[in-house]
Amino acid sequence: MSLTRTRHLFGGISETGIDHFLTVFFTSRPHLLAYGTAAYATDPTKVTLIDTSSLPSFLSGLQALIAFSIPTVDITPADSATEPLPPGVDQFTFSTNVVIRFLCGEGRDRVHEIVAALTLSALCQPDIIDSSPGTGSIGISLLAVKVGGIAPPEIEQILECILAAVLRWALAQVRIPFQVFTIGGVSLTLQEGPLAEDDQIDVRGDIS
Asked: Which of 7, 98, 108, 186 has the fewest CB atoms within 10 Å distance of its CB?
């Protein structure tokens, strides 16, 4: 079967291409990989500020930083059977290293920093949002999160819950709009995708 299947046009980007894009994108936008409270978010070009004003008063002084390394992507089929979250049909997994920092204590002489380093795998799926024929937005849905390098299991599960909340918020900001593209009386319309398949993300469309 041809790459276009029953459509007129086909487009795809491989894992390698996506990894290269992520490297270029996040190298110039490091603040999208680091989220911290006021003590850590002193440079908005490097760290995105987390607003703690709505927290209860006894937590208002909490100071923390969550920093991710540039992620890498594995699009179905899985590269390895031993992956923590191997991607299934129309899924992909991204992996990253995470460093979490907390300032603990009160008073200048008693404050100390606690640092935890761990690995993170996130299972995701590309989605079409608010779609009508030929128009809408492409987004990413988070399906599962797996943390490694932390013990005991109860702490691991708490961190998975916290990091899943951060990732859902971050991924909700990822929206790629699309619409029918017309030039010279010829219209290009997205009909299928984005689909995660054969180690790449594919889209298919029609010409009218």
From this structure: 108
User: Which residues of the chain, if any, have pLDDT below 70?
Assistant: 1-3, 58-60, 107-109, 130-134, 178-186
Q: By C-alpha distance, which of 21, 201, 206 is closest to 126?
A: 201
150 belongs to a structural domain: yes
- Specify whether the CB–CB gap between 126 and 196 falls below 8 A: yes
Query: Which domain covers residue 39, as residue numbers?
Result: 9-207
How far is the C-alpha of 184 from the C-alpha of 197, rounded, in Å? 33
Tokens of 131: 């779609």
28 located within any domain? yes
Torsion sign across C-alpha atoms 175, 123, 79, 24: positive
Q: How far apart are CA 87 and CA 119, in angstroms?
A: 17
Given a contact cutoff of 8 angstroms between Cβ atoms, the answer to whether 125 and 144 are in contact is no
Tell me the CATH number at 171.
3.15.10
Quote the tokens at residue 87.
């991607």
Total domain count for the chain? 1
